[in-house]
Amino acid sequence: MLDIRFLREDFKILEDSLMKRGTKLNFNLQDLVSLDQKLKQLRAEISSLRESQNKLSKEISLLKKEKKDASELVEKSRKIGDEISRLSESERGLDSQFKTMWYQLPNILLPDVPFGTDETQNVVVNYFGEPKDFDFEVMPHWDFGKKLGLLDIERAGKVTGSRFSFHVGLGARLVRALLNFMMDLHKADGFIELWPPYLVNEASMYGTGQLPKFRDELFKCADDPYFLIPTAEVPVTNFFRDEILSDDSLPIRFCAYSACFRREAGSYGKDVRGIIRQHQFDKVELVVFCRPEESLNELNFITEQAQKVLKKLKLPYRVIELCSGDLGFGSAKTYDIEVYMAYSKNYREISSCSNFTDFQARRANIRYKPKGGKTRYVHTLNGSGLAIGRTLAAIYEYYQDKDGNLIIPEVLIPYIGLERIESPKC
Description:
Layout: H1 5-8, H2 11-21, H3 29-65, H4 71-102, E1 123-128, H5 141-147, E2 151-152, H6 153-159, E3 166-167, H7 170-188, E4 192-194, E5 199-201, H8 202-208, E6 226-228, H9 233-237, E7 243-246, E8 252-261, E9 280-290, H10 295-313, E10 317-321, E11 333-341, E12 346-355, H11 359-364, E13 366-369, E14 376-377, E15 379-387, H12 388-398, E16 406-407, H13 413-416, E17 420-421
Helix pairs in contact: 3-4, 5-12, 7-12
């Protein structure tokens, strides 16, 4: 949710940000301005009437103490009360209209976000590692995982449906190895571990910005007021909802593993094979709460932290900065990290690190108290550290050898107790 000053004082900044994003609203911004003015006027009237009613109440009390007739003032107070009720009902209706529009506005872009209309205009920041040349034909991760008995997508399709998978035997152990490796790495660098709930209420989804805009992309329980989380960002960010943090506690950095659940509405025909795009997947998430003046440094920090995982796994990758037209709804600035996929010889997103400024904090009402100052909203950031399924897919393709074996990345050997997984002899 935006600071109301963008509507009342910095309207040009709001207009420019929407234009750069290419945001198409189903209402006119001027209608929002008019609604805001009407609400201000209405609330001022209600406040004035309440003051008059309070004054009358004191006068009535005095008259009754003196055993004098207060009926005229009582009637006047009743009429004022009726008017307050009438105006309050109007105020609730206008406020509902206002919030319906207000919650549709995306975050304000930071000034240095590159302008562009779509993902083709994202900016490559840097590359890490030169992809090695293979002297054999690399198998796609879905075929390789199946051949070694590590991955079973067909049976998952039978048990559940499309875009689900079983990790089997040593494949399941590799998932655990990756999870433990990532969490150990982040904890060693000062992140506090959380194990969050996978179901959250509607207020939590509003807090991080999934609602109301992305309702169709979420799994919702039919008979209970809960949603399955699309990312650990939701429960972890809402950990401090409606709280005031101490200045000394900031920055607070959390790392959390969770399963994630997404309907993938609109993804028909994309990545139909393999484990790149699934309805259920595993991910380690990094979430930061900080002072506003620290958020740019924290964005660089979590982006470096996510890269650290890939560096230790020795997987080639690149970092790109998202242009204005490709930026997420709640983000003010985002870096994506894309890992090299050896079979397709291209780069695929494996982490997205974003600075949400105070957008989520306003929705979730997360503040802090600076020393000697008034309470302020924190800035929130998050990033994947990393998506486990996509990391595993990259490993299956990049670490296979010409004999069909899987070489275990050196950093994972202590976690799985093997240096290789051999191809079945047949």
